[in-house]
Give the backbone structure.
Amino acid sequence: MKKNDKELSRRSFIGRTIASLAGVGLGLSAAKGLRAQETAAPSAQPGAPAAKPAIREYRDLGRTGWKTSDLGFGNAMIQDTSLVEYAMERGINYIDTARQYYEMEVVLGKLDPAKRAKLFIATKLLPELFTAKTTAAEITTAIEESLKRLNTSCLDCVEIHSIGEDPKLSDPAKIKNPAIVEAFEKAKKDGKIRFWGATSHGPRMVEDFDWLVDNTPIDMIQPGMNFMTKGLGPVLAKAKAKGIAVVAMKSLAEARKINYKPFMKNGATVRQAVIKWTLAQPNIDCIAMTMRSVEMIDEYIAASGRPELTPEEEKALKGYGALLDRDYCRPGCSGCLAACPNGVPIADILRYRLYFGSYGEEKHAMSLYRKLPRERSAERCASCEGPCEATCPHNLAIRSKLLAAHGELTV
Ligand code: SF4
Ligand code: SF4
């Protein structure tokens, strides 16, 4: 048995929960299940630097038994564990990773076992693994590869990455493949995973989550959700009623490329307002946020446990929404897809463009775009009059956006 595994096996899963809470200074009250935890502000010494923000709230992660920090640490392109360790010092105990996120699984596998035992780590298998014909053995092999990369004998949660894509790109029947439940439930019985789930920001997000929640013993769903998305309410409520964990992602909408300054007041930021909005929604256990620097972690964590938006923040959110309104392609929307005679996966390409221009993930965005069949690429828009545009409820200039995306993603 590896050192990591010995460490984990010494503690029960619940034991790990309590250890994690104690490790961030929240103590027994949090372990007993109090929903909101305000950390006592240290008495300020004259001239002392301002106290660093810390997580203020831990929530039930569905029926997993884990008390998760309301903010989780997501896809960070990290080269070593220092940023994760900093996030842990600030109280984060949920990590979102994926086979697709560069070498992040391998880096997390290098965490000190004692620290790792204080984390809930959710990883995702490659999206292309899942088809209507994928076998249980293939899924099992992929789980075992993630076990090796994360250097452990049991993964907290393994997810199907990116369900709900455009049906012209990916067979909608793939989530109904019985091999999925067979492989994940067997992996649970064999002690290789504790829980399994699925993530989505695609146009069929709501339908696919709905089917999984109704028809499988899925433990966790991770939707793209923010103050501009619509339609997820009923499926999230249904998931919650069944004890299925709900982790939101894509909560900053266009995230980093917007000039936020007009909306900043008294040290608050629009990003904090957006986080607070998401945390205040019913049925959300945690938000997985991309965190790439100490400053980013501090900024986001300052919004933890404070879902009440100030009137100033509400105003800021409104302004930010107006700025994005005719620019942002909403996760879960499929309004324009049927109108394209060429089967161009509009929502997916606009999301790749977001990764490229806003998330700073140029290589990742370009590699996703390269995987599209050429006859369905945005190249087709050059000789098209753009009938898709009349069908977008948000009046996005789809054609010109797609042409710009093609230029950026093929340089
Ligand atoms: S501009 Fe034409 S080819 Fe391009 S997405 Fe719209 S309908 Fe399809
Ligand atoms: S371009 Fe408009 S209609 Fe098409 S998926 Fe995006 S938001 Fe929906």
